[in-house]
Amino acid sequence: MKPVMLKPDSLLTLEEGFILTYPRRDVEVLKRRIEAVKRLGVNLIEFTGSKEVSNVNLLGKGTRSVIVKVWVSGYTYALKIRRLDSSIRSLKSEAENMKIANSVSVGPKLISYNSDMILMELVDGKPILEWMNTQTDSDVVRRTLFKLILDAYRLDAVGLDHGELSRASKHILVKSNNEPIILDFGSSSTNRRPSNVSSLVSYLFIRGTLPKNIQKFCQYSSREEILDGLRNYKSKPSKEALYNLIGRLGL
Ligand SMILES: Nc1ncnc2c1ncn2[C@@H]1O[C@H](COP(=O)(O)OP(=O)(O)O)[C@@H](O)[C@H]1O
Ligand SMILES: [Mg+2]
């Protein structure tokens, strides 16, 4: 399908403008948001991607936002737009938490934000389950999972709990160079004890559909040994405990 590239101002009259105020239609909010999009420096919005909302293609759709591809001075980015029915009133604390994640090289790079939008690095990747289904090389899979667990460790170490890594299928994209990226800091917090490594390891190796897939690639220990490694790490989240756990995972 041909991509649709539109200037922000044209959204006032075109059907695609609906995406800026999704799931409502509100001309006043639309006008304000078009101005906000322009202030972020966005020249063009490109309606492409695997998600579809009333015949308009998007990069993604979550419960709090919609994500579109945009162009700023000739470069592409992802723009996260707060849904009008979102329970969250502002994206500012999400952006602040992204900044903390970025300080340890985790997550899409934050470019700029306001209360309704976050402009960030566009991650061109596949959801982890889809990526895993196309893999044949166990070294590649093990390296990617290792990197992912290290990212979770870095978030633990900096005191930011992601909050949704136990349901990680929508929140991990793997790029074509096999680099995994953790997305969506909308539920993240610095006020809880971080459990990123525990949530991620239990998602990957204990629960869900991934454990069966992963068995092909990693000679990991029994469920009890993994849980024991996790308990050790939780009681003392040191690098040593992390490496002991990673050993038990066959990475
Ligand atoms: N930076 C990005 N680059 C590419 N796709 C993204 C990016 N951020 C989010 N997406 C896509 O949009 C979907 C929803 O984004 P998410 O941040 O989870 O929104 P919500 O906070 O509403 O749950 C993601 O699952 C992903 O597919
Ligand atoms: Mg989400």
Structure, explained:
This protein is α+β, with helices and mostly antiparallel strands. It folds into 2 domains: 4-120, Phosphorylase Kinase, domain 1 (2-Layer Sandwich), CATH 3.30.200; 125-248, Transferase(Phosphotransferase), domain 1, CATH 1.10.510. Helices cover 37% and strands 20% of the residues. It has helices at 27-39, 92-103, 128-133, 138-158, 196-206, 210-215, 223-235, 239-248, and strands at residues 4-6, 44-47, 51-53, 56-58, 60-61, 65-72, 75-82, 110-113, 117-120, 125-127, 172-175, 180-182. Helix 4 runs antiparallel to helix 5 (196-206), helix 5 (196-206) runs antiparallel to helix 7 (223-235) and helix 7 packs antiparallel against helix 8 (239-248). The radius of gyration is 20 Å and the shape is elongated. The relative contact order is 0.10. The chain binds adenosine-5'-diphosphate and magnesium ion. Adenosine-5'-diphosphate (ADP) binds next to strand 6 and strand 7.
